Amino acid sequence: MQPTVVCLGEALALLPDVPTGEPPPVEARAAGAEVNVALGLAGAGIPVAWIGRLGDDALGAAVLSELERRGVDVGAVEIDPALPTGCYAKTVAIGPDGEPSSRMHYRRAGSAGAGMGPGFLARPAVRERFAAAAFVHVSGITAALSESCAELMDALLAAPRSGRAVFDVNWREQMWPSGDPRAVAGLAGLADVVLVGGDEARRVFGTDEPAALRRLLPAPELLVVKDGADRALAMTRDGSVVAQPALAVEVVEPVGAGDAFAAGLLTGLVRGEPIERCLRRGHLAAAAVLTVPGDSATPLPAATTDRLLDSTEREWADVRVSAAGLKEVTR
Length: 331
Known about the structure:
Order of helices and strands: EEEHEEHEEEHEHHEHEHHEEEEHHHHEE
Largest sheet: 8 strands, mixed
Low-confidence stretches: none
Helix content: 25-40%
Distance between the termini: 47 Å
Shape: globular
Number of helices: 12
């Protein structure tokens, strides 16, 4: 079966720990922004492929195995015989606001993923999947990996396409030594659907005000702004704005929630659902990830998801999500 969505980017092996000066353990989970989105889509039953490069090493084998096991097409993945698979670990602590926060420890310099370039797009297996896909999901992280990856992103988003390009800004300050966000802003302007967090919007575009963002990004057909735990809103080209409040969640660990939101939103877009329903799918997927220590999670049961998607505004507002499950407050 050809994929409906293709996610292109760098895969990372999420490790339980990476002590300085010691070799990384083999126990690893598949992670990385585009990988997280692919896993979320596969969990929702959407045919999806992840495309990228892995090292010919134990970590790459672990990532590839998990992707296959969880239903992601990996037929266009390229294995590099010399460059390693990138990896990272995270330390979770309680921040000053009383909420969990994560500190990342990366080993990704010179990774197999960073070795991608425009020529990667010409590989027959890659071309075949792009031609069949209704959506191609990428993020600003890939452009920051290397000069060749930045060239790949320019080539991909500037080229004619049959499907729609979904660009998640994913601004990572530490990956841009110059601190100049213009390259990422330019890529966003070439996409059909743009996702950006409110804090990212202020850093990359200088504003998170909906009308101002729309003036800066007139070309994308849909612009989605995620305001963390508060709400998400979507703006179409005609200026209409749709907002959906986020669910109340008892957070275990925050990493991966934005990727899960993207997967939920894309699930709705693939199915041709109204944007209000797509935004709710995003919130439900993000809530599931926020209540686990990993970067991706098993989706809520389909019956529960369908009921909540069709709930009233008051019923939606009364939902509470925690690691123990979902609770609906009755008034």
